[in-house]
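Handoff note, outgoing to incoming analyst
You'll be picking up this chain. Sequence as last confirmed:
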Amino acid sequence: MTATDPALTALAQGWCALSLLHGRIEAHIERALQARHDLSVREYSLLDVLSRQHDGEGGHLQMKQVADAVVLSQSATTRLVTRLEDRGLLERYLCPTDRRGIYTNVTEAGLELLDEARPTNDAALREALDEAARDPNLAPLVRVVESLKAPTPA
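Most recent structure output, in case you need it:
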């Protein structure tokens, strides 16, 4: 295939459309969360992911799993955890069965903030998708997003 191959051009255009949709959605949610709850999208995502942990077998995530879930590097995730810990929204503690492991849990204050922010996040997501659906180039992607179901854990 060459750089002027129509299949590559179509692929690049599709990627650009997907990137544009993602950027618009993230920016819309970011503005709403910042304005109402002093949270970034990444902070909200981290609180959301960590709030789903449980004490059962495999219920606590390792930092790499958390980083993958919030789509950040491990070092960026660690810095984010530290910022939220400094705000009293997260707490770290040693794994009771492996003293080398460190777990991170959402504090009561973090859970309260997450509960307050969830409707804002959901409404901003809906608004961003509705706005994008009016763009003929993005409407097919919006339909795909709306048809997706949450992935099941591996």
